[in-house]
Amino acid sequence: MTHAPRIGLVLDHPQRDMTGLLLVALELSRAGASVVILPSYLSWLGAAMTGVDAVMFNFARRGNLQAMHWLARQDKDIFVLDTEGYLSADRHKMLLCALSELNVGNLLQGYFVWGEASKATIAQADPVLGAKIVVSGCPRFDMFAPRWRGMLTWDRRDYILINPNFNSVNPLRRDPEAERQTMRAGGWEPSYLDRFLADMRAGFASFLELCKALPQRMPHRQFVVRPHPFEWAEPYREATAGLPNVHVNTEGEVFPVLANAARLIHLNCNTSVETRMLGGRPIQAGFLNTELLRKHLPLYTGVSVTADSLDELCRMLDDDGYLAAKDDSTGIHERWIQPAFGPCDGYAARRVAEALLARCRPRGQRGIEGTSPRESTRAKAARLLRVGLGGLLGTAAIAELRAWRVPRRRAKQFTAEGIRAALTALATHSGQPAPAVRTLRSPWTAMPMAAVLIE
Question: Is the CB of residue 9 less than 8 Å from the CB of residue 23?
């Protein structure tokens, strides 16, 4: 491009995704680009009003397809950095069918995936999209590399971390049926989905009991229960109420909590892989698992040491030698982690930034290849109304109204101050000056936007 581009990065959930996106933003800034951090809610509106040349979404799904096409017609390049990198064989089949039905290959300029396994299956399902794939690794996992790991500090140590992962049946927004419909729209086959959710509900009930039973069985140990960031935390607080050796944590990102734990207990959770990346031995509560869940998510059993009973789990928590003897870690990285999670070398953010800049086209040359789906008259009217309201009120006011109506959605909000603090810490740790950070304002009324500029 002949001018320094402005790149919009969609931030889905700050607890999970902020650090990874800010690492990408740092790399883009050092290359001369400016960055706009956009909230996932109405990200298309923020992108349209902040003058970005390109937008990188967090997934390609039916729910944001029309918005992506609309932005492309507004002369924006569209990219995707998929935040869900690992898929089992069954999930690959279902989600890839849905992805190929969307026909996004002609829409995207780049589709970033974590590992070669995703690239191979996507390319087979959709050759046009396959040509747009970049195997980047996951930017948030860069924090496990030696050059960043020193930032993973927390105020507690030597605790046992219990990591639930039941957002599909215990969602943060407290509407399991809406969650089910979202999963169906994402490509899940209905009868399989219902069996999966039934097993997840049973697992959730059993895991709540485990969160209570373990601290009672082991009063000499300290426990931290850390729900998935998309989960409703109150059931865990109720289950562990009155237990002095339990702390339920929902603040900040999970990596510092994970890095300072003595042990990790999980049931089919991605933190098992992250624990391996940190050099630890994740423990799977296998006695709570089901055959369907084991087959659906085989990686998490594959990378873990499986406890077959509560008694064995307690022994693993207290006996280092027993846990080490049960851990057959030979080939775990080569068989399970590298194909799914890609090169975990600390440079995923750099690969994403370099590919974004290389593939971002000059203004006036960003037309969509092929046809674009038609938008109904009603949808067009609704979009124009949102553009008008966003321009008049500023998108920050719309985001606040949304959070007032559904308070749990406030967890996805972020501020310029929070972005600035996190970015400054990353820049300082790497010995580089921090870019300037400010809240953007509506070009119509100068009202604040729910978007943050980094330049």
Answer: no
CA angle 240, 196, 303 (to 5 degrees): 70
Neighbouring residues of 421: CB distance < 8 A, sequence distance ≥ 6: none
| Cα 153 from Cα 5, distance rounded (Å) | 35
What distance in Å separates the CA atoms of residue 205 and residue 208, rounded to the nearest whole number? Answer: 5
Integer Cα distance of 27 and 8 in angstroms: 14
Report the relative pairing of strands 448-454 and 437-441 from DSSP bridges. antiparallel
Spatial neighbors of 353 by CB under 8 A, at least 6 apart, are: 24, 27, 28, 31
Alpha-carbon torsion, ordered 153, 337, 9, 67, to 10 deg: -140
* Total number of residues shown for the chain: 455
Nearest of 41, 43, 39, 45 to residue 14 by alpha carbon: 39
**Residue 138 CB-half CA count within 13 A:** 26
The pTM score is 0.92
pLDDT score at 295:
87
Rounded to an integer, what distance in angstroms lies between the CA atom of residue 120 and that of residue 423? Answer: 34
Which of 245, 191, 258, 250 has the alpha carbon at shortest distance from 218? 245
Q: Is the dihedral of CA 163, 233, 15, 181 positive or negative?
A: positive
What is the per-residue pLDDT across 234-255, written as a single tens digit (0 to 9) for each?
999 999 999 999 999 999 899 9
pLDDT at 87 over 60: no
Calpha distance 80→311 (Å, rounded)? 45
